[in-house]
Structure formats: C-alpha cells, structure tokens
Amino acid sequence: SKAFAYQYQSSVNEAVFFDKLDNEKIERAEYLQQVDFTKVNSESLEEFLKNGKEEAVHLFVEDYTKTLGKSNMDSFMFCQYMLINIQVGVMKFVEKMGVEKANIDRTFKDYKQQIAAVSTGEKAAEYIEELIRQAIRMRNERLGKKHSSLITEAKEFIVKNYQEETLSLSDVADQVGLSSSHFSTTFKQETGKSFVEFLTSVRMDKAKEMLCFTDMKASQISYEVGYKDPHYFSYLFKKTQGCTPSEYRSRRM
C-alpha cells in the first residue's frame, strides 16, 4: 500500500525525506495520493538485466522512466522509493549470478550513499543508468568466466571422445549443460571454430600422428579417428591438409 511504502521509505532514508518534503511544501496525506508506487516495474528491469546490452542501457532507462509518468518522476519520495527498489533488485540479480557478496557490497557501497542526494527525475535516471551499467558489466564478467570454463570442459570432452563416430554437437552441449544453439554460438565465440571444425581438426591431428608413428593403413586410421568411410576420411584429409594421407606419410619419412 502507499502508506506502507511511505513508512518503508521514511525508515530507510530517515529525516532527509521529511526535509525534502517540507521544501516541496506538500502535505503528507495529499502527497501520498499523488504518488503511484505500483508503477515501479521490477519484471522489466530483471529481464533487461538478464539479456540487455550495455549500449542499450540509456534507451532502456529512458523508456522505463517514461512509463513511470512525469508526476511520479517529479516526486522526490517516489524517486527515492524507486531507486531503493532498483538498487535491491540489481544486487539480488548479481548475487544470483554467483558474484561474491563481499564484491557486491564493495561495488555498490557508494551507490547506496548517493541515493539520498538524488533530488530530481533527471538525476534519478542518471543514477539508474549507471547502476544498471555496473550490473551488466558484472554479469558479462561472470558469464565470460563461466563460458570459458564450460568451453574448456567441452574441448576436453571432444579430445577424449573424438573416436566416437556419432559424437555430435548435442552430445557435447548436454555434457556441459547448455542448449545446442547456445553451445554452438558460445563455442564459436570462444574458440574461433565451429564444433565440426574443431572436431575435424582434432581427428586430423590424431590421424597425422598415426601416419607418422605407426604402420597402420589409412583405412585403419580412418576407423581409429571416428570415420567409418575411408573414402570420406581421405577426402576430408586432403581438403584440410592439402595432401592425401599417403602423401603426408611419404613426406614425413
């Protein structure tokens, strides 16, 4: 309710609110009728924190504050309530992402102290923008580390199982707990190669080792590195290495 929101807001920021309200010359009861706290939409903020890009923050905040309405954004008390609501939402979000609490507290310490100094809708928008930018940077850093670790695991899994003819992108994606589409995109971003390109390079490297250090025929090597069709193996070898398996072997002798 509005009364609860007012009580909550006052308890958090203490006397500074009453001084500001006196300056605005607004009676408390009348003021509460003018402020609509239900306008604060945490769902749209959370969605943007999950998927938004840093370069889109300004436009998001611009649209977000417009939906709140001018009368609300001109209200000191509403802005304070909104900022605390967003601050809490942002901190909960980065905590869910796995960021250490000590890091969160350290990062947002100054932001907490700045809230009481925000007295206009324009300043509130600037504050929200910087707050969200910081959260997205932390999100991206966390996801970068997570993805790097998952791709390392994926590469190790491929190297360990390259001999399996049926080894597929979905097999590896399942292994690291990502959807096939997400894994495909992330793998390419992290390695510079598609899944098929990486798997092929692993198989070709193993084939070259066998050509150099064993007497196995190319057809046998084909099976050993995950290809049941020796002709396809020879075709792929020449396509990627620039020569046939037998030519490669003779050059290394």
Question: Short summary of the structure?
Answer:
The chain is mainly α. Helix content is 78%, strand content 0%.
Q: In terms of quaternary structure, what is this?
A: single chain
Helix content: over 70%
User: How many DSSP E strands?
Assistant: 0
Number of helices: 15
Largest sheet: none
Q: Strand content of the residues, in percent?
A: under 5%
Question: Which value, in Å, is the CA radius of gyration?
Answer: 29 Å
- Please give the alpha-carbon distance between the first and last residues: 84 Å
Q: How would the global form be characterised?
A: rod-shaped
- Name the structural class: mainly alpha
- Can you tell me the number of structural domains? 2
> Would you identify the regions where 5 or more consecutive residues have pLDDT less than 50?
1-18, 24-32
Mean pLDDT, to the nearest integer, reads 83
Structure commentary:
- With 253 residues, the chain is mostly helical.
- It folds into 2 domains: 2-142, no CATH class; 162-253, Orthogonal Bundle (Arc Repressor Mutant, subunit A).
- Helices cover 78% and strands 0% of the residues.
- The protein is built from 15 helices and no strands.
- The chain has helices at 2-13, 15-24, 28-34, 42-51, 57-68, 70-73, 76-96, 101-114, 121-161, 169-176, 180-191, 195-213, 218-224, 230-241, 245-252.
- Helix 4 packs across helix 7, helix 5 (57-68) crosses helix 9 and helix 9 (121-161) packs across helix 10 (169-176).
- The longest helix has 41 residues, at 121-161.
- The protein starts with a helix and ends with a helix.
- Mean pLDDT is 83; it is low at 1-18 and 24-32.
